[in-house]
Amino acid sequence: MKAITLTQPWATFVAHGIKTIETRSWSTAYRGWLAIHAAKGFPEWAKNLCVEKPFDFFLKRLGYTVETLPTGCVLAKANLIDCIRFTVGYEPPGHESEFGDFTIGRYGFIFAAIKRFEKPIPATGALNLWDWNIPDEQFRFHK
What we know:
By secondary structure, the protein is of the alpha+beta class. The chain has a single domain, classed as Archaeosine Trna-guanine Transglycosylase, Chain: A, domain 4 (Roll), CATH 2.30.130. Helix content is about 15%, strand content about 35%.
């Protein structure tokens, strides 16, 4: 399965369906299921965002703190249904604008049918889209 690595807290927000548009500087022609991987590294600037609005609100609602956000693991799978380029006049839906860089010329990976694993699955990430070999064990999804 293809996978994408996201820094926390964005990986958790995608896994919980709070964030459904991942913004990137690059495009992809790939469509289909992607494993959502939380990067092992958790930079200080990202940790600092977690205590600011609106990040703190959503993390509290989900029951996470900076210290409890999982890293170095696959959290969910999501169906990448589209990749769009942001143009003048594009308005991100809902609160998406608070969780991404929607600068004109950047790209948005549009996720649907997000399914979160019951337990994070340890994995080593990579840049861009990468291949994740799903472990042989049976993993269940949250309902």
